[in-house]
Amino acid sequence: MPTLNDKFVAILTETGFEESELKSPKQALEEVGATVHVISPAKSIKGWKGGNWTEEVKIDKPLSDANPADYHALMIPGGVINPDKLRTNTDAIDFIQSFFEAGKPIGAICHGPQALIETGALEGREMTSWPSIKTDLINAGVAWTDSEYVCDSALVTARKPDDLPAFNKKLIEEIREGVHEEQKTL
After folding, report:
1. Pick the catalytic residue: 37, 72, 111, 151?
2. What pTM value is reported for the model?
3. What are the per-10-residue average pLDDT scores of the chain (186 residues)?
4. Residue 127 is inside which H or E element, if any?
5. How many whole angstroms separate alpha carbon 113 and alpha carbon 87?
6. Dihedral (Cα; 169, 170, 173, 174), 10-degree rounding
7. Quick one: DSSP state of residue 89?
8. Around Cβ 7, how many Cβ atoms within 10 Å?
9. Out of 37, 72, 110, 151, which one is annotated catalytic?
10. Is residue 9 helix, strand or coil?
């Protein structure tokens, strides 16, 4: 099985992410050799699990110090609070937009796709998500599908924690493939 030993992946998050939706992809990526950095505009972040806050998660790099050119792919975990905070942060949206512009793989699960809406790069794309943001994505021009995961030219989305095994596998595959010309927005 090919590894991702030479790949760097950014996980962009704010506080209030769904714990499994950060930890599971991070572990899966690291198991195949990728270097994964948790990046955040916040100084400290906590996840959410079963209706309760989890322990603080170490941030590897503040968003202000992160250069998207240093990363081969981006992943955004869900949780209700996380993408809502990211989508109102212009630096976070600029960071995400740069991955679309470069044609790099992007993964987002559950509510995570909400942050992608603000990039303006979703028109005509096929995606899935947690059902409550279906209308938001449709209003952004997305063809929404209720599926375990959807991959549209290196944009990998999934609905919920139960979908993580399939999501992780597909995201790893897309990162192995590298830049996708169809993903580029410029």
Report:
1. 111
2. 0.96
3. 89 97 98 98 95 94 98 97 97 98 97 97 97 98 98 97 98 94 75
4. strand 126-127
5. 10
6. -150
7. -
8. 20
9. 110
10. strand
Q: What are residue 160's phi and psi, to 5 degrees?
A: -160, 170
> What token pair was written down for 182?
């169809």
110 noted as active-site residue: yes
What Rg value do the Cα atoms of the chain yield, rounded?
15
CA gap 131, 35 in Å, rounded: 31
Q: How many helices (H) and strands (E) does the chain have?
A: 6, 12
> 108: which 2 tokens?
């987002």
pLDDT at 44 (0 to 100): 95
Give the C-alpha separation, 57 to 45, whole Å. Answer: 6
Which residues, in sequence order, are bridge partners of residue 143?
A: 126
Please confirm, yes or no, whether 72 is among the known catalytic residues.
no
